[in-house]
Amino acid sequence: MLEKLKTVVENALKESESASSVNELNDVKVKYLGKNGELTALLKGLKDVPPAEKPAFGKAVNEGRQQIEAKIGEKEDTLKRAEKMRKLIEEKIDVTEPSRKVKVGARHPLTIVKGMIMDIFVGLGFEIREGPEVETDYYNFQALNIPKDHPARDMQDTFYFSENLLLRTHTSPCQVHTMEVKKPPIRMICPGKVYRSDYDATHSPMFQQIEGLVVDKNITLCDLKGVFDEFAKAFFSPETKTRLRPSYFPFTEPSVEMDCTCSVCGGKGCRICKGTGWIEVLGAGIVNPKVLEMSGIDSETYSGIAFGMGVDRLAMIKFGIPDMRLLFENDLRFLAQFKD
Ligand code: PHE
Questions:
Q1: What is the residue with the minimal CA distance to atom 5 of ligand 1?
Q2: CA angle, 170 as apex, 159 and 195 as ends, to 5°?
Q3: Whole-model pTM?
């Protein structure tokens, strides 16, 4: 038995030494030390050894096992180190190779323009407010002096949920919400999404407006012209000129439309301004005293100006975007041009 043990251990040591890979070494381990391994088999044969020789034989098997384990461990280290060296030598990293580009996102042109507009008005002392996109007929129309069946409702093609509930067609309901909770002096703008049943190169069923409202003592059209002038110069360029044209909105009286000189041609006339040299930027006017009264503000003491502008339109003018639908198609080739 002892003779056999000696041979098994010797073979195991030899085979461990000559193993050329970690896999081969594992095979050796299984062959000798595994559940059905040769050394394990010898240990199982212990029961047939005469009692007097048992302790010595048991000890010899254990020593043999330790020797084999030590050898395998040592060999494993050597093989792993060799493998690592081989990899280090073979797998060279070319540090001069260009790296893979990380794609950096860009803000949407509408977000950029909205931010610019808000910055300008905050600089003029306006606060920013928000209102709901789902409105009642009262806030979207009636409180703005557009009673039921008033022909002015035709100006805004409306998405109705029910007779009284609708998607707001403009941000003007925010005027009413603001006046209901705030006493003058009021100076606010309200950016937000609005909805109309319209779809072509210059109209989208969802677009964004920014509403403006100032209510205080002695507010006149001059304040409106002054605010618009400051805004146009800051948004387009200091050379920009502005003008008012008469218009009609039920919630302002008098009502105006405000134009500024075309930022693309400087007023000479081009494709963007359709040859006129002027671009229409917003609808505005003196808040109709009826609207002030309906919202609980004394129209004898106070007066107000209100204006509403289209963010999408301003973005198209600012960036020379020819078709409004480009803003909503989410084509990365288009959007990636607006890195700022
Ligand atoms: N709400 C109007 C529109 O959407 C714009 C406007 C706002 C006009 C405030 C006057 C005053 O067309």
A1: 308
A2: 35
A3: 0.70
